[in-house]
Design brief:
Alpha-Beta Plaits; 31% helix; ABM domain-containing protein; Dimeric_a/b-barrel
Length: 108
């Protein structure tokens, strides 16, 4: 199963007073960390109607996901991001992708 893509799902709430634009700006800063992570494939961040944030990462395989997680908290970009997150609300999980589909912008 080492060659199967992994999806990492993280949900969280921000600390009081953090706006959507504040979080989005700091979240963009995580790109520098992700660019250093071997096996990073994609990322999506969104907030639902209840104010819960959802983040999905796609990794090339389980080893890539675990390596990125192991180095996350030491990265300065992650520290800035986590300063805005209510850590008591964080939930994270990994699972192999069973089915995925994308379409090109031209087909949409």
């Amino acid at each position: 199963m080492s060659d199967i893509q992994i999806i990492e799902t993280v949900t969280f709430r921000t600390i009081a007073g953090v706006s959507e634009s504040d979080l989005t700006a700091v979240a963009k800063g995580l790109d520098a960390y992700l660019d250093r992570c071997e096996g990073f494939r994609a990322r999506t961040l969104y907030k639902d109607a209840s104010g819960l944030w959802h983040e999905h990462y796609v990794w090339a395989n389980d080893a890539a996901a675990k390596a990125a997680d192991a180095g996350f908290m030491a990265a300065p970009e992650a520290q800035a991001f986590m300063a805005l997150v209510d850590r008591d609300t964080v939930s994270m999980g990994h699972a192999p992708i069973t089915l995925a589909r994308t379409t090109s912008a031209e087909a949409a």
